[in-house]
Amino acid sequence: MFLPLYLQTFTGNSNTESVVRHNLQHTIVARFLCFIPLDWSEEGRIGLRIEIYGCSYWADVINFDGQGVISYRFKMKKMKILKDVIALKFKTGESDGVILHGEGQEGDYITLELRRGRLLLQINLGSNQYGSILGHTSVSSGSLLDDHHWHWVVIERYRRNVNFTLDQNTQHFRTNGEFDHLDLDYELSFGGMPYSGKPISGDRRNFKGCMESINYNGENITDLARRKKVDTSSFRNLTFSCVESHTFPVSFNGTSFLQLPGRREHNMVSVSFQFRTWNSNGLLLFSALADGMLELTLKDGKVAAHISITQQKNSRVDMMSGTDVPLLQHSFGLRHHAFMWKSVAYYNIIFPI
Ligand SMILES: [Ca+2]
């Protein structure tokens, strides 16, 4: 079983005495740490000694229910911002949702959102009055971010230069257009579009999940929300802890598998699960029966169930997903939707053994 992890390479010492210390750039909360030696000094013998130093950690978490939006009002009505540093962590099972949004009457805007499991940053520092130089800039990062795991985002902007960091990956880009200031009016909102109070604003959905340690230009937004210094009136129930999901996705890397004990006395098998994959072929499930086998496979993007009972003649039953099989009523366009949980297979196969 492979779970997404923070992977980082550290350079160690090159002699026997010196100590090399690394400070982690981002906070990591973990129960287990795994170190994999990649290389060693050619002059010495192989050896490895590591010490880990932790620190006290206060989780500043807010649960977003898909309704509530945090509105951070600026002290001045109009803000002309040359430099931005925005940092937060998020965790969600939803593929779409607005994480933050701000806009101004001059046409400037900044929007960070999840779209189809990817992180999309859209920023516009202004277009000229003739519209011949357009400031709209759009950059996306990551994939499969609706995986119920924490992800770290940092946006650092100085004039038109932007560093956009997701977990360990930083992209540098320059915004389009010819302006340097982000002109925003009134407020910046987190978790959705401002004033909406609705789960869907236009074609944009509010964020549903958890955010932690939201920091905007030195202001700790999560702490301001706790102290009621920002507008959180759109929340039905504002909670400062993460409501854990009942769904636990498991990733398989092509060689790993999950094995569950069977139940001998039962003559029925019921199976249901959701999956997503980039591959169009693979074994989804296998079970040896007392007298045969049950197999669920992906073949050319279609799901097939094979059941064979060896004692009887003509006992092999093959079902392909499609219109002929009432149990498998979904159309599996896996090549196009492979990365989305929407392309989910849902089975409930019950048959006498
Ligand atoms: Ca501007």
TrEMBL record:
InterPro entries: ConA-like_dom_sf (IPR013320), FA58C (IPR000421), Laminin_G (IPR001791), Neurexin-related_CASP (IPR050372)
Signal peptide: none
Keywords, sorted A to Z: Membrane, Signal, Transmembrane, Transmembrane helix
Compartments where located: Membrane
F5/8 type C domain boundaries: 1-55
Membrane topology of the entry: Single-pass type I membrane protein
Keyword Membrane tagged: yes
SUPFAM superfamilies the UniProt entry points to: Concanavalin A-like lectins/glucanases
Domain Laminin G: 61-242
GO cellular component: membrane
UniProt-recorded name of the protein: Laminin G domain-containing protein
Species for this entry: Pangasianodon hypophthalmus (Striped catfish)
Upper classification of the organism: Eukaryota, Metazoa, Chordata, Craniata, Vertebrata
